[in-house]
Amino acid sequence: MNIIEFLSIDSSRLNADLLVERFEQDHGIFNEILAVMYQDTYPLSMRASRVVWLIAKKYPDFIESYINEMINRLPSFKIDGVRRNILSILVEVPLPDIDPGRLFHICYTWLESENEPVAIRGNALTILYKISEKEPELKPELVTLFESLLPCNSAGIETRIKNYLKKLYSGD
After folding, report:
1. Is residue 11 part of a domain?
2. What is the domain range of residue 45?
3. What's the CA gap between 96 and 66, in Å, rounded?
4. Is the pLDDT of residue 1 over 70?
């Protein structure tokens, strides 16, 4: 069975886990899964992005060489689930040595937008803080942004903003 047929079955966690197991047996299928994710077609791309996220969680070193391409393609995805899963990867794996400017701009824009889904905004918030740990000169800009977002229409995002502000104020 090919990857598209397998992803067409359903969106269950079991199916995603089975594809991760296939990846563990044959890393060569990763590029096929990635190609489906990059097609940006619902629901297959969203399902493929979930598998990529699960692989990234389990094998963060493997995914590192794909991060730059994912970041470059991130703004062009129309499917929220694909963008959310890519951001989730960036939250969970160490950021490779990249120029953080593009990623910072993407996350800054999405965090500011109340039209973005809460999960995307929350992940964007965490990634911005992560970038500031590598690029401390960005911290004052984040303090200004985070303060401007309070109060927030999402209790989860508001709590996360307050926690990051405490860290930013204390210099951690």
Report:
1. yes
2. 1-83
3. 10
4. no
